[in-house]
Amino acid sequence: MGDAVLVLNAGSSSIKFALFAMTLPLRRLWHGEIEEIGRAPRVRAWDAAEELLPEQLWAGNTHEDFLAQLLQWTQAHLQGDALAAVGHRIVHGGADFTAPTKLDAQTIAALDRLSPLAPLHQPHNLNAVRALAKLRPGVPQIGCFDTAFHASMDATTRRFALPRALENEGIRRYGFHGLSYEFIAGRLRQIAPAHADGRIIVAHLGNGASLCALKNGRSVDTTMGLTALDGLVMGTRCGALDPGVLLYLMQQYGMAAPALEDLLYHQSGLLGVSGLSGDMRALLAAGDRAAEEAIELFVFHVAREIGALAASLGGLDGLVFTAGIGENSAEIRRRVALRCAWLGVELAEAPNNAGAGLISAPDSRVSTWVIATDEEAMIARHTIAAIL
Ligand code: ADP
After folding, report:
1. Which of 234, 266, 328, 333 to mutate to test the pocket of ligand 1 (most atoms within 8 A of CB)?
2. Domains of the chain
3. Quick one: which H or E segment has residue 328?
4. Mind listing the pLDDT tens digit for each residue in 245-291?
5. Which atom of ligand 1 is nearest to the CA of 373?
6. CB of 93 closer than 6 A to ligand 1?
7. Is the CB of residue 324 below 6 angstroms from any atom belonging to ligand 1?
8. What is the pTM of this model?
């Protein structure tokens, strides 16, 4: 089989994993997810043909318990071939980590200092790196950063209108979902080379949601900022908010940072507005007024920010929908496109309902696609490049 790389995306109660053979082209051997760690853990994995493998009966309470079993399982599958490296999704690379980086005690400590900027993800990403270092000290670990792809944004785009001293401390816009955008930029070059250097907006619409403006395949603007709270309405995150709201909540409601963090990251967005769910599929099926208002607010902000990024690009040639909502919901794509008709976006109904590849009408000024993202493949490619 040859050597392989393991890709990990570790969250607070889950670990997504994928094993890739180091072949050209890259080959995914299997992928899966350990969910509900610490509560009622469950492991599911799929083979290369997307067939669900028999449920794995792994036991344990901690991330480390499950990573140990994942490594044993990996080793058994490799039948004597080596695990050449582990690639990690690390959400925040800050100003210093703008390319995939070997993770050692020093880099882990530097990345840990960024944890307050991504409290939902960064600490869990790094705990998995530390656990792996203990379990397999000889295997190189490579960090791939969600912020890195946006390092090409210019100084004006990166800047908040705050005193310079704060900018010098690193308080500026970084942007996220970069591994997804990098994958889409590469894929677009394959499927529509004539557009790859054009003015493109990619809409990564999942539980976390953001937009990226691409020019010549590089990020020139994005909707997220210092943290992954900014920009669009998300499953449970508020998106862009008048900062005066925070002052008001602190002054009038006596809310301190932990309560605000919970409100903004976990209780807001689609969940907060609908009072029902942060899951778009559930809201579309609900047929309830508050659910509909939450959906409309989501669509409104996607369309409004598409307008803003079109201004950053000086026009719009292409639009790409990706991630859970972007790839699977013809209804959300239809509603966003209607609000963007003034920019020249016009969908063709049947391709939009089919939901893959080119979905715009033949005479639409803006070519529009659905492209499935693959952050794991992007991490695997970076990891292999970093160890060769
Ligand atoms: P994450 O940011 O956690 O990776 P995903 O990219 O998996 O999230 O996206 C999850 C979102 O996609 C959820 O809101 C889910 O309801 C939505 N979604 C998945 N399939 C559909 C569908 N068929 N119709 C509408 N929304 C969908």
Report:
1. 328
2. 4-145 (3.30.420.40), 193-375 (3.30.420.40)
3. helix 323-328
4. 999 999 999 999 999 999 999 999 999 999 999 999 999 999 899 99
5. 6
6. no
7. yes
8. 0.95
